[in-house]
Amino acid sequence: MNSVDLAFLPALDQARLIRNQDISPLELVTIYLERIERLNPALGAYVAVMAEQALADARAKTEHLASNPDDLPPLFGVTVSVKDLNAVEGVACAYGIKAACDRIAEQDDYIVGQLRRAGLIILGKTATSQLGSLPYTEPPGFPPTRNPWNLDYTPGGSSGGGAAALAAGLCAISQGSDGGGSLRGPAFCCGLVGMKAARGRISFSPVGERLNGLAINGPLGRTVADTAALLDALSGYELGDPYWLPDPEPSFLDGIKTPPAPLRIGYVTHLAPLGDVDPVCRQAIYETVQQVEDLGHTAEAVTFPDLAELIEPFTVVWECVIAEVGVPWIALEKMNRWLYWRAWRINSGAYLRAVAQLQRVARQIVQFCQPYDVLIMPVYMHPAIKVGAWKGLRSPKILENVIGWVAPCPPFNASGQPALAIPTGFDPNGVPVGVQLVGRPAAEATILALAAQLEQANPWSHQRPDFANDTAA
Predict the structure, then answer these.
(1) Which of 22, 195, 343, 440 is such that its CA lies 20 to 30 A from the CA of 433?
(2) Which phi and psi (to 5°) does residue 345 adopt?
(3) Residue 187 contacts residue 163 (beta carbons within 8 Å)
(4) How far apart are the first and last CA of the chain?
(5) Which CATH code for domain 3-467?
(6) pLDDT tens for residues 218-265?
(7) 61, 83, 125, 196: which is the annotated catalytic residue?
(8) Quick check: is 158 catalytic?
(9) Which of 158, 203, 235, 415 is catalytic?
């Protein structure tokens, strides 16, 4: 197996090769670091490469494997990237702000500790939109992150760096976060599996969760199994967390081994007040509906609740977070600066009313979904945009465009329901598209099991972008 084949091998397959001592963690890390050095300048996926730390960890794990081959963590020796909104001890955590690149983290976030406990080797920090606020990854002062399937297009955001790295074979699996589609959108744009887990599934420790339960960390994988395995690794409760769920039984990875019983599925192709989904995305939904029916499930078209009452309070909460994080307004890019000053005109009562309104709408969404085991939804309203497409627009127009693109994602950040993006094909520009599977509260296992069925019927992880499919000269 050549180095490209190894780089694109699913994470769990890599873990099996390592356990069987067919390849060492050091060999894999060396392959990925070479690929990062060669491909990342054109891609802009990593903002910090932890080469020395990764090599030291790989050497230690390779030595450990030689003398202690039994009882290894499930992803022992496999590589992972970490989004630059999460702290890795001893490494800069800049939140997409160029002036903060010397801000060295003093301790790991909880989820980084979970990655280490699962045996993963961290290759580096991946790009995010500034403060994670936008669905494309072009923070000022950094090269824009590009989509490896077509470098003219965005990989999405705000977990765009992790998605681009994974899709280009610059890591085996990626960590990201999702406060309004920031995992699902990049998965959609890059042909990956991206999970927004249920509220309370993954701890935000040691930092506070500023978004009233809207945001959650989570996995990006090439396959459903890889995504389930990383979700298992990330999941957990830290004493004092404001939200929590019991550990699943069986594990998410074990749960996908059994096909689900026949499911009742609703599907959505129109979202008021925005209108119909783009024809390419609508066709992806219709094809997925046909597949689930062929698998023995029942599916029916449904009318999703009007999003008009969600958009304004969701926007209020987001802009207040921009103002609250403590970054001087002068350090912010144009869009975040505009949101910052909008937030200063909002008093505490208006903020609390927005939160209460979100909770009311969330209750309506959960009640709407209750008759269905799964909803098949668009991920975004249309396929990926070009890099820089909205750069010259005024901020109010950018906000309008963002809402009109990502609208299918935020309802489930508000409701706390699990939602999974899976790839289905490509648009005419060669950029991936996909669909979103939404489950009942805390029912990640159901949508993962259905996604595994769909993946088996229509495999996708063998596809690779031409940009990343060459070997070193």
Answers:
(1) 440
(2) -90, 0
(3) yes
(4) 17
(5) 3.90.1300.10
(6) 999 999 999 999 999 999 999 999 999 999 999 999 999 999 999 999
(7) 83
(8) yes
(9) 158
